[in-house]
Write a structure and sequence with these properties.
The protein has eleven helices and no strands. By secondary structure, it is mostly helical. The chain has one domain (about 5-280). The relative contact order is 0.21.
């Protein structure tokens, strides 16, 4: 992999990890469209993948540091009993919502990636991802409380599990993790902004766990000269892009409550159909 290819993949990763358009799907489709000979499942790609995830997780931690600090302060009881109850509940909700991905990922991730890891399958699932986003907006738009702005702490444990199960759809290349979680949040009557916030808070432990897992898998990998430097540059690029992407998305979801997922849905369908035809 050349430095230019690494930077392009890092830019794609930094944007699509947060945008509801599937980073894994784009990682499979874009190199195939550009005819790059990059083995996304090979040992040589693992260090690069670890660094990309580390960069994305760092960006999310920086952006949401205020949220984590407020939650920790609230949970400690320094901000009053009511705030303590809400903060502890949010921590529990995040933990409950993460459990399905840990279980399903541990049992079925390799099988799913092995069966559906090609660019053409990613194109199919990317199209389905777009349809999911559009259908959710349609369902939500029919409700009488479509702009309810329900607080995250009001979610039930069953709803947290449902959002966590939605997150598991992202093991299929082309289905967006953030998109699936936002869909789960919207179906639980959260606003786009709160659904995205819950999704991004969930993402940090998930991405960190994936990074640790990938780092463990590469313990016997022999690095080629310059590989770590290339991965380090890509990680910085991914972090910067992810930081800006998060800021843009949170502002966008705040300002476009009624139809926020529609542009992403249309894009996924167009990109998926084009890629499937082109790669055929």
């Amino acid at each position: 992999m050349t430095l230019l290819q690494a930077i392009i993949i890092a830019i794609i990763q930094g944007a699509t990890e947060l945008f509801p358009v599937s980073s894994l799907g784009h990682a499979a489709i874009v190199p195939a469209l550009l005819h790059w000979s990059v083995d996304l499942h090979g040992d040589m790609f693992l260090p690069f993948l670890v660094m990309l995830h580390l960069g994305t997780a760092t960006a999310l931690l920086l952006f949401f540091w205020g949220d984590w600090r407020a939650l920790l302060s609230g949970a400690s009881g320094r901000d009053g009993v009511q705030r303590q109850i809400e903060s502890v509940r949010i921590f529990i909700l995040l933990g409950v919502a993460t459990v399905p991905a840990v279980i399903v990922g541990g049992l079925f991730e390799h099988m799913i990636r092995h069966l559906f890891g090609t660019a053409r399958y990613a194109a199919i699932f990317l199209t389905l991802n777009g349809a999911m986003l559009l259908l959710t907006e349609r369902i939500k738009g029919r409700g009488t409380d479509s702009v309810l702005g329900r607080p995250i702490a009001s979610l039930g444990m069953g709803e947290a599990v449902m959002i966590g199960l939605c997150q598991c759809l992202a093991f299929f290349p082309g289905i967006s993790r953030s998109g699936a979680c936002i869909v789960g949040g919207l179906l639980s009557r959260l606003s786009h902004e709160n659904a995205a916030r819950f999704s991004f808070l969930m993402a940090q432990p998930v991405i960190l766990m994936a990074t640790v897992k990938e780092a463990f898998e590469m313990r016997h990998v022999t690095l080629e000269p310059g590989q770590l430097e290339t991965a380090g540059i890509a990680a910085v690029v991914a972090a910067i892009v992810a930081l800006f992407s998060t800021a843009i998305l949170m502002r966008y979801f705040h300002d476009h409550e009624k139809w926020a997922l529609q542009p992403f849905g249309y894009y996924c369908i167009a990109m998926g159909v084009f890629s499937f035809i082109y790669l055929g």
